[in-house]
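Standup notes
- HV: blocked on the assembly model, inputs below
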Amino acid sequence: MAKKVTIEPVTRVEGHGKVTIHLDDNNQVAQSRLHIVEFRGFERFVQGRPYWEAPVLVQRLCGICPVSHHLAAAKALDVIVGAGTGDGLTPTGEKMRRLMHYGQIFQSHVLHFFHLASPDLLFGIDGDPALRNVIGIALEHKELAVQAVMMRKFGQEIIKATAGKKVHGTGAIPGGINKHLTQEEKEQFLNGPDPLNVDKMIEWSLGALEFFKGYHAANKDLIDKFAAFPSSHVSLVRKDGALDLYHGVLRGIDNDGKKILNDVDYQDYLEYIDEEVKSWSYMKFPYLRSIGKKDGWYRVGPLARMNTVDFIPTPLAQKEFEIFQAYTGGKPNGMSMHMHWARLIEILHSAEMMKELINDPDLYSGDLTVKGTKQKEGVGLLEAPRGTLFHHYRINDDDQIEMANLIVSTTNNNTPMNTAVNLAAKQFMNGQTEITEPMMNAVEVAIRAYDPCLSCATHALGKMPMDFKIVDKNGKVINQKFKNGE
Amino acid sequence: MSKVLITIDGKGFLADSEKTVLEVARENHIYIPTLCNLEGIKPQGSCRICTCMIDGRMMTACTTPVNNGMVVVTKTDELDKLRSKIVELLFAEGNHFCPACERSGNCELQALAYLYKIMVPEFDYIFPNRDVDATHPKLILDHNRCILCKRCIRRKKEAENPTWFVFENRGNHVKINFDHELTADMDDEMAQKAMDTCPVGAIIRKEKGYDVPIGRRKYDLHPIGSDIEGKE
């Protein structure tokens, strides 16, 4: 008898989603889908608002990576106020924004790896659910838990110093930034008492990488084979091919490493990327126009970035990047669980970048903003923690936003996440008559690798209720299980 | 100018007889909250937030002239509750979304909400359907945030002629508007003055928002009224 398994909500991810898995008469996975069940609507209700409000208003999409939305919107508005397409700001304006961004990447990646993903690694996919969460980490791996909290704190203090607040600040304004860094803040970040200084952050980032590499060596099957699949990859890269999370050109490669987006100007993104809408999800499905709807999907995020860039412009992260690349002989890496590895390399890179920027004199003096000839339309892209983030605005003659289009990072990963869900479901559920908790968690592990931000600041600590249903062909529930709920 | 003796919160003060209770209180570093009142402009007492117990009756401090022997109480639990409800009703009546408002941190209404620790709304919010007039080259009127205090209208009437701002419509549909012809040559300084007159974010300058960082805005460091009380 055909069955339908529903996982709702998916836990230890940002936001709300659910998974449905249809099993056929032989208990083989016939179809699986990750549904995004929340509707946001920011693109609509930002219409009519003064354009300079966008970076502050639209960042309310999210409480985890608001800085990414704040900066992407500001970058789009830089174009509108005539401050150039990402490289026309004053040195102070650009570097303050970069520091804000790397602080954000650092704290967001740390949150994901330590709080959300590490319980699966430390306790196992089939570990005791009572322990397999951040509380379990705090109880059983106290040192790691303390590091996670302090690393997040450091990143958030950087955000506060540059944006005014740890969450939902106002630092970036069209054409630049509204403040300098102070000498007191510099002293605090460089020489603050342990552990809240940047050198300790670099040391701990290296430690986290060593932890992962050790885990990888002992668990090759899980890390290399679980939800691994070939795909294209897209990200921004610096014009010289370096990893640059704040600004660059759009590069896409296919599974063989061949360029399918050849370092193009993102102001023209609509020439290259389109979005498909499907009835069963509020999340759209982007694809490369040149390849088409069926095969034009691609991955974004840390793994994609490690695949698209030629090098990392900070020495310690570059060394780790070389090890990462060597593992696949320089070929594109399609292993979903390697997303964690890539993320940890970016944590290290962000820590190095923060140190470099904090030491830069441009942060402490110099013009904050620049303006030029006003434009009606602007596109702002950056590499958010979860991948390439697109903001596009058009204004009317009265300075009101009349069109907004956002393609958020997780949206780009829609098809890849669905692919990963399908692979995990097949691996763990094919032929099974009884659905167990570890099987369901395996599906979630596949999703978690992508660190999806399904909507905004919804935090789940692994204790959220889940409702699993097996229904027959007529929709009648024949088996139902609850986790952490009634 | 003759002098009168009045008592405010149990202390005696010698005051000019032509002054209001609010003016005398401020001169003596006693804070009475206001919203529709603007220093130097004739008071109208419409927002009622300055209501005090004056000789045993609730009266607005901004419009009540002092009298010899007058006894004023500016702060009681009952008065604080009344003021708190007035602030909350103003929030419920308009569309005040502080998180993205560029006057956040510089807004008198928001500062009063913090002063009275308004955390959970008691009244149902109306969420009226109001528009934004962005047709002027220097200013934007965001009717969502207007509390109809008339400060913009009264300031221009008193200080300069002819007036820029007017009320249009009646009753529930009343809203501020301004003369586009008269204000066509408005410069940045005049636009800033118009914006500063507004206690909320209903009158804002074009293309100039969020340029004061969080932490340096008017009410970030000191609560509203602390300047009058000399506590800054």
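- HV (later): unblocked. Chain B has two domains: 3-75, 83-221. The helical segments of chain B are 21-27, 77-93, 108-115, 151-159, 188-197, 218-221.
- Next: hand off to the docking folks.
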